[in-house]
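Re: [ENG-882] Designed sequences occasionally contain unexpected residues at chain ends

Forwarding the minimal case from QA. Structure tokens:
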């Protein structure tokens, strides 16, 4: 199979069910932002020397493939595509990780500037991309059916990425700059 198909040369692409849409279609924009987020997580993981954090990010990246698959699939109600579902347990796992991370950190009483080490800084970037993806998915959900677990997952994920960025910087001895 060739990587290039030439089917997009005129600005069109196909969704999972074969529906032809423009490359700026709301669905394509939403799953494109999720794909960008996934790439930033891979970049962040490449800078982290913390096995547990890298493993968590790998699980999140798998989740994001599922999110992207759901967004690219107008047949959202088809349960035969179980691999692309985001179960509530994955949202709970993010919440549990956040709770665990917060035990390592000083409570925040002010805003902090994004930054720190390379991995932590990229996690902060990923958090902002996650928020954009969430906004795109919410916008999409006003036009077509979107699994509500996807919106909740992205909302919780941005919190997770913020706290993970703080933990990564803390574990590397990088000081947070208060605003």
């Amino acid at each position: 199979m060739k990587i290039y198909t030439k089917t997009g040369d005129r600005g069109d692409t196909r969704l999972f069910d074969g529906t032809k849409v423009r490359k700026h279609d709301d669905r394509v924009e939403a799953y494109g932002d999720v794909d960008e987020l996934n790439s930033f997580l891979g970049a962040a993981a490449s800078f982290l020397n913390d096995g547990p954090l890298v493993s968590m990010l790998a699980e999140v990246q798998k989740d994001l493939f599922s999110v992207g698959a759901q967004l690219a699939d107008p047949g959202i109600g088809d349960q035969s595509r179980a691999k692309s579902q985001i179960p509530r347990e994955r949202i709970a796992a993010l919440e549990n990780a956040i709770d665990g991370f917060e035990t390592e950190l000083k409570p925040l009483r002010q805003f902090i500037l994004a930054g720190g080490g390379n991995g932590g800084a990229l996690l902060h970037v990923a958090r902002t991309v996650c928020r954009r993806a969430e906004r795109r998915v919410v916008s999409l959900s006003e036009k077509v059916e979107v699994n509500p677990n996807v919106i909740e997952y992205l909302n919780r994920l941005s919190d997770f990425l913020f706290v993970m960025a703080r933990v990564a910087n803390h574990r590397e001895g990088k000081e947070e700059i208060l605003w």
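QA comment: On inspection the terminal residues look reasonable. Helices lie at 26-47, 51-71, 88-102, 118-141, 148-171. Proposing we downgrade this to a documentation issue.
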